Amino acid sequence: MTAQLLDGKALAATIKADLTERVRALAAQGVTPGLGTVLVGDDPGSKAYVAGKHRDCAQVGIASLAVELPASVSEAELDDEIARLNADPACTGYIVQLPLPGGLDENRALGLIDPDKDADGLHPVNLGKLVLGDPAPLPCTPRGIVELLRRNGIALSGAEVCVIGRGTTVGRPLGLLLTRKSENATVTLCHTGTVDVAAHTRTADIIVAAAGRPGLITGDMVKPGAVCVDVGITRTDAGLAGDLDASVREVASWVAPVPGGVGPMTRAMLLTNVVERAEALASVRGPRSSLPGI
Ligand SMILES: Nc1nc2c(c(=O)[nH]1)N[C@@H](CN(C=O)c1ccc(C(=O)N[C@@H](CCC(=O)O)C(=O)O)cc1)CN2
């Protein structure tokens, strides 16, 4: 068997085309959505991801507000930038790019974001709403994974899903999303304390690998016909490497690859979160509101 590709790049392009129309409709009401990003330090991966987010904004007509700070920034200076974006009426929503350099407390920074402007859905209030099943912006990678599976006709209801990785941006919130009544999957969350990862992956209908360990999942760990989603991106001298070994493609029915799978979907979901908030605010304020931008 050679797996079919879950093409996140193509699906993200379709989603961005739809968002472009929605941004045009907002513009007709006098509203320009704005995405802010806070990038601290010079991690090459983070710089590339943030640059990609702003390229996407330009494509769909969302305004960009890019804040760049040196790795030596103090906690107080970072807090000031976050407070500034909270107060900026041109900023509909924003993100603090993770990971932050050592010495800066990520949870503290995320907790200072105005939950209404939390374009990443990573503020504790919004993660709490996800637990409770209340409406809130959803974390971008988990939302992108569910969308990629759903739009390719992959059934989630009743599926056994094995998620590898318990991080706050992917594994944990993905488990919460997949176990909502609307998705109805059964989730096993594996992590560095899991004694026998293969014992869990071998019985799974869907495997989501978000460990950041190149080649961790090999073909012999996959049930024939399973769907495999690669989330781990590691930068090596030879280029980007995912968590799925090449042998997985001979066993799986579908594979979401690195690059071109979940990454572009993560970015498309970030734009979606921003546009959704702009639309919600526009509908509250009514057309051609005299209030400042949102
Ligand atoms: N504040 C956040 N920080 C981080 C998040 C997040 O959702 N919010 N997730 C990851 C990184 N990430 C988003 O920021 C991200 C990762 C990958 C891609 C992407 O487009 N990947 C491409 C390859 C890009 C390349 O060539 O480097 C792909 O897979 O095709 C976008 C966003 C950690 N931090």
From TrEMBL:
InterPro entries: Aminoacid_DH-like_N_sf (IPR046346), NAD(P)-bd_dom_sf (IPR036291), THF_DH/CycHdrlase (IPR000672), THF_DH/CycHdrlase_cat_dom (IPR020630), THF_DH/CycHdrlase_NAD-bd_dom (IPR020631). Transmembrane segments: none annotated. Residues 6-120 form the Tetrahydrofolate dehydrogenase/cyclohydrolase catalytic domain. Catalyzes the oxidation of 5,10-methylenetetrahydrofolate to 5,10-methenyltetrahydrofolate and then the hydrolysis of 5,10-methenyltetrahydrofolate to 10-formyltetrahydrofolate. NADP(+) binds at residues 165-167, 233. Its EC number is 1.5.1.5, 3.5.4.9. Residues 139-279 form the Tetrahydrofolate dehydrogenase/cyclohydrolase NAD(P)-binding domain. It comes from the Bacteria. Homodimer. The lineage of its organism: Bacteria, Bacillati, Actinomycetota, Actinomycetes, Propionibacteriales. Keywords: Amino-acid biosynthesis, Histidine biosynthesis, Hydrolase, Methionine biosynthesis, Multifunctional enzyme, NADP, One-carbon metabolism, Oxidoreductase, Purine biosynthesis. NCBIfam families: PRK14193.1. HAMAP family: THF_DHG_CYH. This is Bifunctional protein FolD. It comes from Microlunatus aurantiacus. It catalyses: (6R)-5,10-methenyltetrahydrofolate + H2O = (6R)-10-formyltetrahydrofolate + H(+); (6R)-5,10-methylene-5,6,7,8-tetrahydrofolate + NADP(+) = (6R)-5,10-methenyltetrahydrofolate + NADPH. Belongs to the tetrahydrofolate dehydrogenase/cyclohydrolase family. The gene is folD. Pathway: One-carbon metabolism; tetrahydrofolate interconversion.
